[in-house]
Write a structure and sequence with these properties.
The protein is α+β, with helices and mostly antiparallel strands. The chain is built from six helices and 13 strands. It folds into two domains: 172 residues, PvuII Endonuclease, Chain A (3-Layer(aba) Sandwich), CATH 3.40.210.30; 71 residues, Winged helix-like DNA-binding domain superfamily/Winged helix DNA-binding domain (Arc Repressor Mutant, subunit A). Helices cover 31% and strands 28% of the residues. The strands form three sheets. Strands 1-2-3-5-6-9-10 form a seven-stranded mixed sheet. A three-stranded antiparallel sheet has the order 4-8-7.
Length: 257
């Protein structure tokens, strides 16, 4: 995988944003394989909201976001209305996030990861304040993607701090969480929140008692109308076990697979 942008592609543009858009899109097309099937990605020819690439082999779609700053826990997105409509469509996109650095000789990719579409629930899309009536796009509202609400398994890294992952590992990590696609929205939100709490335990093996101790209060706060959070937790852990995300070691002990 090459890490540098092709500077010649941006030579005809004056705006840095346009240069980065053209160079980053070309970089993805030339270096990134589909995380679902390993097929080649193709650039969407016509402008399409919330879609930049598609895989001709498996039909997965992707939107690319690039930044010269390392992505934080909250990512500024585009139109809130367009985002929700696209995510609720029959074929919502997966998202690519590219972080580049400016070097003495040009632009170099430092981090690149994918957030699969099944992690984009209404819980992680936050509506931003409406623009004022005097603004050029008066009453328009953007959105923020709350990455901090996702478990680590919701971020599939191709490159982390310039270290590249084998495509086999990328595909394995992508396949590991595909079971979420079949879940209904509320069930999916619960599973994702439990997966996040498993991450926060910061240990591969944990007991049900430990999980209750560290995660029950947080989940109760997130789901105040649920009157039996412990039973819901056990249900979600059983689903994660059945899907091969966790393994059961007996006596109330689980381990990340």
């Amino acid at each position: 995988m090459h890490r540098d942008f092709d500077l010649s592609l941006g030579a005809g543009y004056k705006s840095k944003a346009q240069k980065v858009r053209v160079m980053s899109e070309a970089w993805v097309e030339n270096n990134i394989a589909c995380p679902a099937c390993g097929g080649a990605l193709q650039k969407v020819k016509n402008n399409s909201p919330v879609k930049d690439f598609y895989c001709a082999q498996c039909a997965e779609e992707f939107e690319l976001k690039s930044s010269g700053r390392k992505w934080g826990q909250k990512i500024i997105g585009g139109s809130y209305k367009t985002m929700l409509e696209r995510l609720q469509s029959p074929q919502p996109p997966n998202f690519f996030f590219l972080h580049y650095e400016v070097t003495d000789t040009g632009y170099r990719v430092k981090n690149f990861f994918c957030i699969p579409k099944q992690f984009f629930t209404a819980n992680i899309i936050e509506k931003r304040r409406l623009l004022s009536k005097k603004a050029r796009r008066a009453r328009w509202s953007g959105c923020t993607i709350l990455v901090d609400k996702l478990p680590e398994s919701g971020k599939i890294f191709y490159m982390r701090d310039t270290i590249c992952a084998p495509i086999a590992a990328v595909r394995k990590n992508f396949a590991k969480i595909c079971f979420l696609k079949a879940q209904q929205p509320e069930a999916k939100s619960w599973l994702i929140d439990v997966m996040k709490q498993v991450d926060l335990l910061a240990q591969r093996r944990f007991s049900l008692r430990e999980f209750y101790s560290k995660a029950e209060a947080a989940l109760q706060e997130q789901y105040p109308d649920n009157n039996n959070v412990r039973a819901k937790i056990r249900q979600q852990l059983q689903v994660l076990r059945a899907q091969g995300y966790l393994s059961f070691k007996g006596k109330g002990v689980y381990e990340l697979c």
